[in-house]
């Protein structure tokens, strides 16, 4: 069987399973999640042995240490997976909720019911924990799932797939409710993103390169973001301490996350006061500052100072590097943001009511904040309970995507024999 | 300038205008709508003269009478357009609404703000009234709009575009907030659906052929439905009078609409009682019944009886034709629906609580009804106030799409200096 045929079979099986997944009640779906958690706990030694095969192959192939690190399924990582599943069980069931039922002049009562999307495809790198997290969220939301993890994790993913199937069957759900693509052939990804008849949405989790490649070919809609070029704007009326706390936290709390600040904009009136103080904080972390001429002049003497190029304003560094620009005020700041932002997350630091309200209203990004660190743009911090991904698109889910992003609202009508006049 | 360059210029202008459209307050957007309504009333004779040029050309080209009819801008049609704009003014403003603001353990307060999508592209047939309806809904929802109507209406659309611009400028909004594509070259459509950098969503309004062609090429997301193969299932426990009323209304109220019933499914236990009675009603309208063998036997003697083919179950007739099938019960009915339905609208007629609840939950269509005519699947009937289109997709808007479908929810965070720990 060639890859395309194999993937179509996987797709057909997913579509067939999706109906049973969608109509299963809350208790059944939660029972499957708990059985999977138990199976993973019980089979931890076997999982680690399977993972060891992946790790040996990865080291033999000279995989970068950071990737080997992500690939590693430590005891702690297994415990975290199991705990994650139990947390998903504790979340409220999004499925079947009926909202807004209102009587209409015709006599019918109309509202909306939250229902699963159907079949979710997840494409991700060689991180075995994603296999379980993603399967858990999709089971909870009543969807069938096709998981395609990085080929370096194939042994571990196969072992996990077996346990997931065991849990599904134990709860009386179809074993094809979750399928792990059992091939390392890259053509499987190409097939998966071009079969809208079997897959309702793709959630790619990975670097910008992976997602950009998928976008070129995909005919299935995706919930995705390419990059996070996030801005903090320190307004003329900013509280100095808040500006320092947030300016430091948004850049230095973690460098590699998509909600990390990459560009700092500072109002001219406050720049001479705030920039030198902030630079003292950045200096403790050896943050390189790529500055426009005005910020450059204010920061003269800072040990890691570089002149910014046009390209810097459009770059997600994911590193101890920050672009810095002095602007006249909120209008120039918003012009800059609307030009260079990846529409992920932006924050204004200000005590001025009108500027705060204008920023919230006029900045066209998935998350817009006042006096808070961009690092808060996250499913857990927003109270979604879990996060399947982040979306920079405007249709369907926008910003951090939790269980609701894996659902759809259909209209339901309670009638009493009404006909249209 | 070639068509592609021209459309890119239109796109750039729309994108530039979208920021001013988005930040305009309710009063400004409503003022523009009222000014457009006034201008159309005032210029009614000039509009009818422009329309006459289109009608003369259409008749000379031998356009079908039904299309000439749609193209005609009668005095009544102008009054309806004007009234439609005033109704849009009276709708609540969807933009800027903030919902769900909740404090999180970190101290930040998180919720969502409803904002415009940005730039909406509308592609439609030669119906001048759509130009004004669509422009009105997009202005109300704070979006910039590119309108591409059927080339047969070009004179009339040009005249309307002038009045729309007059209204926008009169209210202090950018004249490019609404642009009518000023060329009859079909390449303009191809360009419009492949410039995601300038257009956020396309709403195609037209026949299945048009939309299927657009789907093959579009890289901009679309809010669309291809067809409406809607089902009514008369359950064994149906109330006979409701079954007759709804079975007749869903088919015969209007034949050409997407929410018209195309297939009737009847439970075996009730078929001998309900089908002959229904046939008496259908006979008054000479409805052709394309039946499976069992329905055929029950209806023997009906004057317009035809044996159904496999193709019939998958056909949207848009005519006085109905497919009829006898099924064992709700499971076979739902299997049939999930196989052949276009996922638009389905209705069950039953007095049985469990069957009603199962149908609502398990049928995967945009509208699912109990004891009501499928003809109610409509933005006005659902209380959306207006309808830009209908969506059979599951992502973003599903079912009748009103003003909210032209908006997006972004996250807003009110902070007080919080940083991530």
From TrEMBL, chains A, B:
The gene is proA. Gene3D superfamilies: Aldehyde Dehydrogenase, Chain A, domain 1, Aldehyde Dehydrogenase, Chain A, domain 2. The keyword Transport does not apply. It comes from the Bacteria. GO terms for biological process: L-proline biosynthetic process. It catalyses: L-glutamate 5-semialdehyde + phosphate + NADP(+) = L-glutamyl 5-phosphate + NADPH + H(+). GO terms for molecular function: glutamate-5-semialdehyde dehydrogenase activity; NADP binding. CDD domains: ALDH_F18-19_ProA-GPR. Keywords: Amino-acid biosynthesis, Cytoplasm, NADP, Oxidoreductase, Proline biosynthesis. InterPro entries: Ald_DH/histidinol_DH (IPR016161), Ald_DH_C (IPR016163), Ald_DH_N (IPR016162), Aldehyde_DH_dom (IPR015590), G-glutamylP_reductase_CS (IPR020593), Glu-5-SA_DH (IPR012134), GPR_dom (IPR000965). It is an enzyme of class 1 (oxidoreductase). One of its GO terms (cellular component) is cytoplasm. Belongs to the gamma-glutamyl phosphate reductase family. Pfam families: Aldedh (PF00171). Catalyzes the NADPH-dependent reduction of L-glutamate 5-phosphate into L-glutamate 5-semialdehyde and phosphate. The product spontaneously undergoes cyclization to form 1-pyrroline-5-carboxylate. This is Gamma-glutamyl phosphate reductase. Pathway: Amino-acid biosynthesis; L-proline biosynthesis; L-glutamate 5-semialdehyde from L-glutamate: step 2/2. Its EC number is 1.2.1.41. It is found in: Cytoplasm. Residues 8-289 form the Aldehyde dehydrogenase domain. Its main location: cytoplasm.
């Amino acid at each position: 069987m060639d890859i395309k045929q194999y993937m179509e079979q996987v797709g057909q099986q997913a579509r067939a399973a999706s109906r049973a997944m969608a109509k299963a009640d809350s208790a059944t779906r939660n029972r499957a999640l708990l059985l999977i958690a138990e199976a993973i706990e019980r089979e931890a030694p076997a999982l680690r042995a399977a993972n060891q095969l992946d790790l040996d192959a990865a080291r033999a192939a000279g995989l970068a240490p950071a990737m080997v690190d992500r690939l590693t399924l430590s005891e702690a990582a297994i415990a975290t997976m199991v705990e994650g599943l139990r947390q998903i069980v504790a979340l409220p069931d999004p499925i079947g909720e009926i909202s807004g039922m209102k009587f209409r002049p015709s006599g019918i009562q109309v509202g909306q019911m939250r229902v699963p999307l159907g079949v979710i495809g997840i494409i991700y790198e060689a991180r075995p924990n994603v296999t379980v997290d993603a399967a858990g969220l999709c089971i909870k939301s009543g969807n069938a799932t096709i998981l395609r993890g990085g080929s370096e994790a194939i042994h571990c993913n196969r072992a996990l797939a077996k346990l997931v199937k065991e849990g599904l069957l134990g709860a009386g759900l179809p074993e094809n409710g979750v399928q792990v693509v059992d091939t390392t052939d890259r053509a499987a990804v190409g097939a998966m993103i071009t079969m809208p008849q079997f897959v309702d949405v793709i959630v790619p989790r990975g670097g910008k390169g992976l997602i950009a490649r998928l976008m070129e070919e995909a005919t299935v809609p995706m919930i995705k973001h390419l990059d996070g070029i996030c801005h903090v704007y320190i307004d003329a009326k900013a509280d100095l301490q808040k500006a320092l706390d947030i300016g430091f936290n948004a850049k230095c709390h973690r460098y590699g996350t998509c909600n990390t600040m990459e560009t700092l904009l500072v109002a001219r009136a406050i720049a001479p006061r705030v920039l030198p103080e902030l630079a003292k904080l950045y200096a403790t972390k050896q943050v390189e500052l790529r500055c426009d001429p005005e910020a450059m002049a204010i920061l003269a003497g800072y040990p890691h100072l570089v002149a910014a190029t046009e390209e810097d304003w459009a770059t997600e560094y994911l590193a101890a590097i920050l672009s810095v620009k002095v602007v006249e005020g909120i209008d120039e700041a918003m012009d800059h943001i609307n030009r260079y932002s990846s529409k992920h997350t932006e924050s204004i630091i200000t005590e001025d009511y009108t500027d705060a309200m204008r920023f919230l209203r006029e900045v066209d990004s998935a998350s817009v904040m006042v006096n808070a660190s961009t690092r808060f743009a996250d499913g857990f911090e927003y109270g979604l309970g879990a996060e399947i991904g982040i979306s920079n698109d405007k249709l369907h889910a926008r910003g951090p995507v939790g269980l609701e992003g894996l659902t759809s609202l259909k209209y339901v009508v309670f009638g009493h024999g009404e006909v249209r006049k």
